[in-house]
Amino acid sequence: FLKKKKNKTKKKATPQYLRNVILPEVIQYEEILSKNFGRLLYIIFVYGSWIIIFTKGYPLLLSKNQSHVPLYHEQIGYIVFATCLASWVTASYVSPGNVTRETLHRYDNYPHDNLLFVEHQICQTLQIKKIARSKYDKYTHRHIPRFDHYCIWLKSPIGEENYRFFVLFLIVHAMTCCYGFSIVSRLFWGMMLNSSLLTPTFMRQVIVLVYIMVAEHIILACVNVFMFIMSVLLLAFLGFHLYIISNNMTTNEYFKWRKVWKWYEWESKRQSQSLSSFSGKAILKSEVNVSSSSSVAIQHRSKIFDTVVADGTHDEEVAGSTTLNTRKDNTENTISNPG
Predict the structure, then answer these.
(1) For residue 136, with 0-12 CB atoms within 10 Å meaning exposed, 13-18 middle and 19 or more buried, which class applies?
(2) Residue 229, C-beta contacts closer than 8 angstroms, at least 6 positions apart
(3) Is 250 within 8 Å of 146 (Cβ atoms)?
(4) Angle at the Cα of 335 from the Cα atoms of 312 and 321, rounded to 5 degrees
(5) Is residue 156 within a helix (H) or strand (E), and if so which, with residue range?
(6) DSSP-derived 3-state class of residue 262
(7) The whole model's pTM is what?
(8) What is d(CA 284, CA 299) in angstroms, rounded to the nearest whole number?
(9) Which residues of the chain have pLDDT under 70?
């Protein structure tokens, strides 16, 4: 019988020029894209939204039929855009600080609490003294004083020297989103009021407003929804940072203290459970001892009672043997001398 030989498919080898020329460039561009991914998203969403506002919203603002939003908001919009851009550039390029052997004395200003920050510790990566409230940043390969967190939108760690600019960046962008949402919403509301409704009930106004946003200005409406969502998130994030500022903490320290408190609560709960179980066992043991001692006492008393009954005497006569003897002598005298 003839056996058919299976044709084994061999993988095609990558050409030499692809491995030497194209692959290194692809890997390099991939690294650049991964490092700047947050910045690219910021540019696309934020400045893309600004472009839509300038091209779609400003014509509505400057139209003749529009009378619900003052025209000076055109100049205010340009000022807000310039402020937004300036805050982002400043927060991105201001250094957070760098702890080295030469700058160690400059940033060593905080005491060690020997809980989160222990004295005489050495940074295992840079082999320098690890000062209190500092941390090694794996993205920039620097030791950051008073490290807060790494911001992907700025592509920079937030530390002692640029934290104030980061908070300013949050304030500006939160106010920008709130301002943009309010102006675009007023434009839509004015267009709804300018529509000729015979009986302007609330439901009809809502229907007309939705029609204007979806059918006529869908792109601007999407930007308005995006600004509303971002204003809520940015205000919440700004409130969190104002909270940790009031408590003299950083984001890094806040989450470390949360771990410490969780560990403390878990240990307290475990200790209380162990104490309650120990006290329960002690009470149970004492009850067993009491019951065993009482049973022994009852057995001892029953033995005494049996002995007394067998002798024909009473418990009280056993207790007072002298009284019994006296009574016996008196009885014998009475019998011998009945008179």
Answers:
(1) middle
(2) none
(3) yes
(4) 35
(5) strand 156-158
(6) helix
(7) 0.71
(8) 22
(9) 1-31, 196-200, 278-339
